[in-house]
Amino acid sequence: MKELQHLNKYFFKYKWQIIIGILITIVSKIFLLFTPELIGSSIDVVNEYLQGEVSDIATVKKELLINIVYIIGAALITGILTFFMRQTIINVSRYIEYDLKNEIYKHYQVLPLKFYKNNRTGDLMNRISEDVGRVRMYVGPAIMYSINTITLFAISIGFMYKQAPLLTLYTIIPLPILSFIIYKLSKEIHKRSTIVQQYLSHLSSSTQESFSGISIIKAYGLETITSKNFHDLSETSKQKQLNLVKVNAFFFPMMILLIGISNLIVIYVGGLQYIHGDISLGVITKFIIYVNMLTWPVATVGWVTSIVQQAEASQKRINEFLKITPEITNTAQEPSNIIGDIEFKNVHYTYNDTNIEALKGISFKLEHGKTLAIIGKTGSGKSTILDLIGRLYDIDKGELLIDQKPIDKLHLTSLRDSIGYVPQDAFLFSDTIKNNIKFGKEDATDQEVIQAAKYAQVHNNIMGFSKGYDTVLGERGITLSGGQKQRISIARAIIKDPKILLFDDSLSAVDTETEEQILKHLQDLAQGKTTIIVSHRVSSVKNADQIIVLDDGNIVQSGNHESLINTDGYYKNLYLKQLSETNQ
Length: 584
Ligand SMILES: Nc1ncnc2c1ncn2[C@@H]1O[C@H](COP(=O)(O)OP(=O)(O)OP(=O)(O)O)[C@@H](O)[C@H]1O
Prior knowledge:
β7 (about 500-505), α18 and β8 (about 530-535) form a beta-alpha-beta unit. Helices cover about 65% and strands about 10% of the residues. The protein is α/β, with parallel strands linked by helices. The longest helix is centred in the first third of the chain and has 54 residues, at about 55-110. α10 runs antiparallel to α11 (about 280-320). The chain folds into 2 domains: about 5-320, ABC transporter transmembrane region fold, CATH 1.20.1560.10; about 340-584, Rossmann fold (3-Layer(aba) Sandwich). The protein has a 6-stranded mixed beta sheet with strand order 6-7-8-3-9-10, with helices on both faces. Bound molecules: adenosine-5'-triphosphate. Adenosine-5'-triphosphate (ATP) binds near residues 358, 376 and 381. Adenosine-5'-triphosphate (ATP) binds near residues 380, 381 and 382. It is found in: Cell membrane. Keywords: ATP-binding, Cell membrane, Membrane, Nucleotide-binding, Transmembrane, Transmembrane helix, Transport.
């Protein structure tokens, strides 16, 4: 139960609803127990009349009528209270589920990129949905059924013992056995249903993958193989389902068997006591009703135990993530006003999961309003430089200064708010084009959205869609070309009007003519903004104030376009190669 202590703060938060829920549960059980008592006394009245102990039929009828009215009244009150019991305790479990999901989601947001690299998305999703769902079962149903069982058991055993102590002892003998069997069955059901769940998610992710990659499957003629894979996987999944159904099928027969045994004991032992004149017929009737009433709550003891164990395991998985402290934190109290001077002084950075030293002592200085271009072979460390400026990672050695201050002393939100970043793989959400652009500035007007799209040379494409800016993208909507995606991603960065603009090979899928136009607009837009353009193309970088050439984490050349094309080296070779390609 150690892991579940995490939930105590939520129990405290909703203490009044829980206390009221518990009180309602107790009162509803008291009313429920009126029924066996009233039925028992009705049977006794009828029996006394049959035995000739009472001769006035009118009195018997009156008493029976009163009992019936009481039974209906008690049932009505129990029903109403049961409704409110669920409305309090089950509602609290939903509130806590909601709070816990929000807590986990908020925590996910502050965890570093490394966390996302080390953990699979499916696992993150599972902990926030499946695991929280299991914890909710503990918070709601488990607590509600436990109170139910304790109350019902305490009151009814008290009633029963007062009327027939020996019969009570005999009657409750099968109940712990029932509880134990249900516990074992629940555990087995849980084990098998977890396997079924794993296969189902396996089946759905593999199906989803084959639908997403349908063009590759068709192009390579892999339909038969993928169909066979699907068939094999669904066959195993079916077998696992059947295994689960087999254990499930034991559940109710087991309960019926044990209830039957308890009833037989009541009839046999109670019958003997009745013959000896120790108890009345009404007591036997009451006991039969009590036994049937107690069976389900007692069975839930086993079920609840298994729920608590599952919740404990799930909360442990949740706590594992909640305990991770974000490495990159904000240390500044006040927001920082970023101007955009950037300086790298002998910066080193190693990705500790792969041990790759991506930057091996990088130094450059970029004044605000200027443009730096970074060019170099693939894997030379270009994107890493941009990631360090956005503080997605913290440097290992050296100094990274923004406005002459160490980057980790700046207000983190101010820093990120002042950056417009266009990543290598443009990611667009399954939403409208307008909202995808407005992601950069939530309160942007339609005019601003259109202007940004015009600067990014994508406005005409968007107007070509029948729904224009309201066109939905992604799974629910249309698929854009690589170049269109890149340009929408550029519009998203432009609309933010940031102090620092970072373009990570963001024009690679755009033809040179469009690239030319975008760069021309950028020159106007980038007035006063610090811009860094990472590219493999000389055409993208030639107008930059400063160009650096990276190779294996080192700066091997630097200067401007003019000076670099006149110096032997990587830049000049690339320039000549790309020049001859355009002339061909
Ligand atoms: N998240 C990461 N975890 C571990 N290693 C990484 C990570 N990102 C990059 N690397 C490694 O660091 C080195 C530099 O990568 P980086 O992405 O900065 O290069 P790049 O010059 O931008 O390459 P490209 O032009 O292909 O985008 C590469 O060897 C790469 O494999």
